[in-house]
Amino acid sequence: MAKVTVAGGCSKEHTSVTFTVTNKGSAQVAAGLKVTLYFNDPSSGGTALKTVATTKALLPGASETLTVTIKLPAAYGGEAFELYVSADDVGDGTGERNECDESNNTARAKVQCTGPG
User: Fold this and answer.
1) For the stretch 38-57, what's the b/e string if a residue is b when 16 or more beta carbons lie within 10 angstroms of its beta carbon?
2) CA-CA distance, 5 to 56, in Å (whole number)?
3) Quick check: is 116 in a domain?
C-alpha cells in the first residue's frame, strides 16, 4: 500500500477517496485483490465502510490507483477521523493472499469533512 488521499466533495455523509495499491512483493498479484476502507483504526474497533477489488494484475513493483466514494457512519458529526485503507482485507480484517510481509498492507489519512451533509 502506498498512498491515500481524500478528494474534493467531502461532506458529513460521504467522501471520495483515492488510494494506490502497490505490490511490494516478489510475485505477481492477480486482479481482484480485496481492499477495505475503515472509519478509524480497524485494530481498535474501526468501522468497515466499503470493500472493493483491484481491477488488474500487479507485477512486482506495479501499482493501481483506485477512486471510490464511501458513505460515512450515520453518527459522524464532522469531527476529524482517520481513514484506513487495508489491502488484502475482505472486510473483516482477514486476507485471502499468503504474503511474506503482512505488515505493509495498511495506509491511513486524517480526514475532517465540514461540508454540507
Assistant:
1) bbeebeeebebbeebebeee
2) 21
3) no
CA proximity to 19, closest of 114, 112, 105 = 105
Please state whether the predicted TM-score (pTM) of the whole model is above 0.85.
Answer: yes
Query: What are the tens digits of pLDDT across the range 22-69?
Result: 998 889 999 999 999 999 999 999 999 999 999 999 999 999 999 999
- DSSP code, position 44: G
- With cell 507485477, the residue in question is 59
81-106 tens-digit pLDDT: 899 999 999 999 887 876 666 666 88
Q: Is residue 47 part of a domain?
A: yes
- Tell me the CATH number at 90: 2.60.40.10
* pLDDT at residue 55, as a whole number: 97
Q: Residue 9: left if φ>0, alpha if ψ -120 to 50, beta else—which one? A: left
User: Taking Cα atoms as reference points, which of 79, 88, 91, 110 lies closest to residue 22?
Assistant: 88
Range of the domain at 89: 3-111
